[in-house]
Design goal:
Blueprint lengths: L1 E8 L1 H14 L12 H7 L4 H13 L2 E7 L37
Protein name: Dopamine beta hydroxylase
Organism: Nothobranchius korthausae
Length: 106
């Protein structure tokens, strides 16, 4: 019954990230809601600190999920501000033909 699932960092936590980085860089002006998330990302000065804080956000902030059934309706349930799922095992990376392995399947 599962057709599609997508997730994204909760927008409120993402705005807190932008505010924190802007304040850290001496820019106390909040542009929350005034420009798109894409624009906010493009306005950041990217350095090791900015990247590490973003990585931390992605690994700890709640996520919002949208899971569609094969009939194009959302699955029932609470999908907002869910904890990041714990990865319990890693799958082996498929080898590509140029690496001497079998062709990856989709």
């Amino acid at each position: 019954q599962l057709e599609l699932c997508k997730s994204h960092v909760d927008p409120g936590f993402l705005q807190k990230y932008f505010n924190f980085i802007n304040r850290f860089n001496g820019n106390d002006q909040c542009v929350c809601g005034e420009v798109s998330v894409t624009e906010q990302f493009s306005q950041l000065h990217w350095d090791g600190f900015t990247v590490e804080v973003l990585d931390s956000l992605y690994n700890t902030a709640p996520i919002s999920m949208h899971c569609n059934q094969s009939i194009a309706r959302l699955f029932p349930g609470e999908w907002e501000k869910q904890p990041v799922p714990e990865v319990t095992s890693n799958l082996a990376k498929p080898r590509f033909p140029c690496e001497g392995g079998a062709t990856p399947t989709s």
